[in-house]
Each structure stands twice: as structure tokens, then as C-alpha cells.
Prior knowledge:
By secondary structure, this protein is α/β, with parallel strands linked by helices.
Amino acid sequence: xxxxxxxxxxxxLQEHGNLTVTELAKRFNVSEMTIRRDLKNLAALGLIQREHxxxxxxxxxxxxILMMSMGEAEREKxxxxxxxxxxxxxxxxxxxxxxxxxxxxxxxxxxKCTVIxxxxxxxxxxxxxxxxxxxxxxxxxxxxxxxLVGPMTRSVLxxxxxxxxxxxxxxxxxxRGLSTANxxxxxxxxxxxxxxxxxxLVAHSAKIGQIYFHTFARWDSIQTLVTDSGLEEATRDKLxxxxxxxxxx
Length: 249
């Protein structure tokens, strides 16, 4: 009975695109818990996508989910990505940190190089580009941004020597440096910083001035900031005086 219901759920989703758990429970006259179990099974097979009390067809790829989270900042982040990608020279070995702005770098990247990343969406974007060699770190998957974190990720990074690191941050502040609210991500970023010759921070201007509970890097670790034109002039001047090159997309 459950397999027949799951087949019918899939057909309904193909017809309607998305349906809520409540709608499906009423349709089949079963409990919402039963529908959630059905959707969990279908999602595990890769047949649908579950999201906030509803089911979606066709399944959404990790890259698409991350792109949707860019919201209104998508255009600025795309411009930041395009400008940052021009800093990569042919033959470079590059680390791309997980995040929406670094995803923008990956989308703009066409230069022949080697990319090491802990981001499943970035690996998906670059994986079919013949001129780019992609190495995925491995590790525990974080559902929010499909980043790989944990001891395996840190251990793999220790073995690399990168020419450039394109780094993301949740908070960026003059007085407290780069910060994040996730300790697992923070530990991975610190390992990336240890193995890169040059560090380029890519960050939307809305993050400048934000401080989160763990600082993972100070400004003396950063050579370049690539951001958008929303950066305040006073902040730009202060960073330049601290020895940070500032590029506006």
C-alpha cells in the first residue's frame, strides 16, 4: 500500500511541481507523519526534493539550492565572482572555500587550473570543465550549504600547497577580522589559511561590519578583498592602510 501511495505521490508531484505535506495527507486520507515517511523514502531515492513542509519535483540540485539562497545579492555576488576569477592564472592550484560568493567565482572560472574545494555545489559546477582539475576534500556534509567539514576535511587539506585561497566569511569587521557562527566551518577555514600562499577574501559589502561569535582570521592573513561598490569609503581606506588590496566589482 505504501509503495503504491509513494508512486502516486511522485506522479502528483510531476503534475503539480510541488505539494505540501498537509495537501498530500488530505489527498490520501492518512496522517501527516505517514506522508513525511513517504517523502523521506522518495527523497532518499533522489526522486523528489523535501523542503520546509512540502515536496518538490523535479529534485533541486545542491547548486540550485545555494543559488536560491543568494537572494537579492545574487547580481553583486556574480560580479564579485567574475572579478575574483580574473586573479587566477593558468596552472594555479586554488582552494575555493564553500559559500555562495565563492560559488560565483567557480561559475566565472574558465582558466586552466587545479581547484581544491570542500563545496559539493562548486565541484558540481566545475566537474564538467575539461580544462579544470577538481579535487573534493571529503568530510561530513552540512545540509544548509552542502559544505564538507570535520576531521577528514581538515586532514585532507593539510596535504595540499595552494597558490591562492578564495575565502568566504559570515562576518567581516575591521576590529575583529573574519568570523563565523559555525565552529566546524571555522576549523576548516583555518586549515585552508595554513596551506595557501595568497589569500583573497570574497565578500558582499553587506557582511562588512558584521561580527559573529568566532573569529577565524585576522587581517594580517588577508592580501586582497574583492567586494562590491557598496563598501564604505572609510572602510576601504582603513583596509588599504592595513595593507589589504581592495577590489570593487
